[in-house]
Amino acid sequence: MTTGNLDRGLAILELLAANAQGLPMHEVADKLNIPRSATHRLLVELIRHGYVRQQKEYGEYTLTLKLCSLGLSQLSGLGVVDISQPVLDELAKISGEVARLSVIDGEQLVWVAKAQGSSAGLRFDPDMGGVVELISTASGHAWLSCLSEEAALELVAKQGGFVQHGDCGPNVPRTVQELLKMLHEARVRGFSVVSEAVHLGIAAVAAPIRHPHSEQVIGVISVAGPHLRLTDERLEALGPAVVAATNELAAACAGSPFLKRAIAAVSRSQDAAAAPARAKRRSKV
Fold first, then answer.
1. What's the confidence (pLDDT) of residue 85?
2. Of the N and C termini of the chain, which has fewer Cβ atoms inside 10 Å?
3. Which residues belong to CATH 1.10.10.10 in the chain?
4. Residue 11 has what pLDDT?
5. What is the per-residue pLDDT for 280?
6. CATH 3.30.450.40 spans which residues of the chain?
7. 15 near 32, Cβ under 8 Å?
8. CATH for 5-64?
9. Where would I find the beta strands (DSSP E) of 56-201?
């Protein structure tokens, strides 16, 4: 149960973001276990500040585009869009499918940019700003394959382990052994390939972005689309193009404050992880 007004307000924003069609006030209150009177007051305040609108009197509440605008302004100001978009546009053009960039944020991988290819018919058009599901996506596997087995499994466990969601595909790894086998294959190839795991009928290929000097992984570039077009053979053929895109973006890291900050964050994380081992070695001296 959320308690403080800040907690409650943020919970309402997150709930409405996950329900783009809108929700009535009583449903917002019930889902978040907030008294209806308090929910109404918070919604009124969010409307006053321009983050929420009510579709009609006594109608559903939905988010405005203000949060989207703030997020896009942040990415633009940090150089992510300017640096990555030409790379993603070219990869989308080559593949005909959607190309995406995700960046490591602490212990998560977050979608931050994309470019849509020109393929006709079925399209895979994912939302941005979401957290990448590590166990079932090519992007997740690309990052995990660069970690030790212990670190990879720890991150997967923090996301819920091997519990499957309702619309996952038939090829999602269901055991530690299956996941480690897929990560080993990605490590050998230099890129990951996943078909019909996160969703039925969706396939993807992804590669990690490594800093050109330190080799630290700071993000992932992927290409995803319908498995009807992205067959296993097509995914393998696109792998080198995805790797080339990661190398190009890695070389441009100096031009993006956001990516430089991501590099620094990864460095701090690695230093913190290595601290116990260093202390243990010093104690033996």
1. 84
2. C
3. 5-64
4. 93
5. 52
6. 72-273
7. yes
8. 1.10.10.10
9. 61-63, 98-105, 108-115, 192-195
Nearest to 98 by CA among 84, 82, 119: 119
What is the crossing angle of helices 36-48 and 5-17, to 10°?
80
The separation between CA 66 and the C-alpha centre of its own chain, rounded to angstroms, equals 21
> Rounded to 5 degrees, what angle do the CA atoms 232, 233, 238 make?
100
Q: How far apart are CA 214 and CA 164, in angstroms?
A: 35
pLDDT tens-place string over residues 224-268: 999 999 999 999 999 999 999 999 888 776 555 555 565 555 555
The pair of structure tokens assigned to 258 is: 């956001």
Instruction: Spell out the alpha helix ranges (H) of 105-231.
Output: 138-144, 149-158, 176-189
Query: ∠ CA(213), CA(214), CA(219), 5° rounding?
Result: 100
What's the DSSP call for residue 23? B
Q: Which of 83, 73, 76 is nearest to 254 (CA)?
A: 83
Q: Which CATH class is domain 72-273?
A: alpha beta
The contacts of residue 22 (CB under 8 Å, 6+ apart) are: 16, 55, 59, 60, 61, 62
Of 219, 197, 240, the residue nearest 143 (C-alpha):
219
